Amino acid sequence: MLTRSQASEVVLSSVAKTTGRGAQPGGTLRDAGVTDAKLPPLIITLVSDPAIGVARFQHVLDPNIVGGIRLDTTIDDLTDQVLRLSAGKLCSNPTNPHEQSYPYPTSCPVCGYPVR
Question: N or C: which end of the chain has fewer CB within 10 A?
Answer without folding.
Answer: C
